[in-house]
Amino acid sequence: MLFDRIYEEGLAQASYVIGCQREGTAIVVDPRRDIQVYLDLAAKNGMEITAVTETHIHADYLSGTRELAAATGAEIFLSAEGGPDWQYGFDGTDLRHDDAIRLGKITLTAKHTPGHTPEHLSFLVTDGAISEEPGYMLSGDFIFVGDLGRPDLLDEAAGGVDTRFAGAKDLFRSLKSVFLTLPDHVQVLPAHGAGSPCGKALGAVPSTTVGYERANAWWSKYLENDDEAGFVAELLDGQPDAHAYFARMKKENRVGPAVLGPLEPLAALPAADAQAKLDADEAVFIDTRSKDDVLAGTVEGALVVPLGAKASAFAAWAIDPETEKRQLIALASSAEEAEDFRACLLRVGIDTLCCSTESIEGLRTFVPPTITADELESTERDALVDIRGKSEFAAGTIPGAQQLSGGSALWRLDELPHGPETGKPGRLITFCQSGARNVVVSSALRRAGFDVVELLGSYAAWADAQK
Q: Which domains does the chain have, with CATH numbers?
C-alpha cells in the first residue's frame, strides 16, 4: 500500500494519497487546488488516480476535488450525510455511513462523524493484504492531535446562529459512537496541524493513535464521566478567531470551485508596462517582499503579501475576489517564484494574477509611515488598532487599543473611526505582535482609504519599552 501525506505548511493542511501498488490505482483525500503535487506523486509511483474524496465542505482553503477529477478522470465521492442543507452542489457518488471505496485490496470505509460540520465523514483505511481490520483513520477535522475540530465555524463562516451548541453535542456523540469504539492501535491522521484555526490547541506532530488520545486528550475525562455539559463548555471556550474569507471558501466549496485546467505561464511585465496598468486602474500591485523591505519603500497603492509559509492566508486577508475584480501584478524575482506565488493564491480562490515584475525599480513608490514605541503617546490618531487575535488581545495590549483581527479587518471597516464632519476614514495606528501581520493589514486598510501609521516592532517593541 502507498500511503503518503501531503502537507501545506502555511494553511497547516494535510491531504493524503492512498494507493494499491498491485493494481496501480490511487485515491486522494482532501486535495488542495494546486494539484500538480498529486499528479507528480502518482506518476513517480506508476499509479493512476482513479478516485478523489473529501472529509467535509472545507472553510479554510479551496478544495481541489473537481480540479483533480477533471485532470485525471477520477471518480468523485462526496458525503450525502448532514441533511438537505449540507449537500454538495456538484456531481459525485454519494457516501453515507459505512459505505466503502475500494482500490484492489484497500478499503476506505466512510464513518459519519458530525460536529465540526453536519456532513463530516472520517475514513477508516484497511489494507486487506495485511489485515481484515482497519489500521488507519483519516479523521479530517473531527479529531486532531490533542484536540477536536471546532464546532463554531458555521456560526463564524456560514451565517449560522448558535449552531455551535448542537455541533459540540454532535462531537460528543461522534466520539462515543465511532472514535472510542476503535482499537487503540488505529493510527489517526488529521487534515490539519498546529497553526490551523480549525481548532484551538492542535499538536505539531503529524499523527496520533486512538489509544493515545483516549488516554491523554483533554476531552477524554468528559467522555469517561459521560459529562456532556462539561465537554461542551470547555470545547467552546477560547476558540481562535475565524478569518472572514472562510465564508467565501465554505460557499465555493459547497457549490463547487471553478475548474481552471492547465494554466499558461505568467507573463513577465516590464516596469513601464506595469506602471501603465496601475495608472489606468486596471491592476493592483502585490508586494511580496519581507516586512523590513516593504517598510523601506513599496509601490504606491500596493497590497503586501510576503512570500513564505503564510502567503495563502495573508492574501485572503488582503484580497477579496468577490469585490476586487482587477488583475493582480506580483513582485517576483523569477518565473519559478511567480508560479509558486500563484499557487498560494489559487489555494484560497484568488485567480486573477496575470503577470509579474522582477523589481519595484521604475515604479512609483512611497515609504509607509511608521512610528517608534517612544513616539506613540505623542502621535495624533483617531484610533489605536490591535490586529492580533482575541486571545492575544486578552492576554495584554497597549492601553486604549481596540481589537480588530487581521483576518477580518477588511470586512469590519465600519468598526473603525471616520471623521465626524467629513465622513472619511480616520487616522489609525496599527500593530500586531512583531509587525509581520501588521504590514499586510495596514496595506489593505490604506487601499480602503485609511491613513495608517505602523508601530515599528509592534506590541513586542512597546512591551520592551515598558521594562
A: 2-255 (3.60.15.10), 267-366 (3.40.250.10), 370-465 (3.40.250.10)
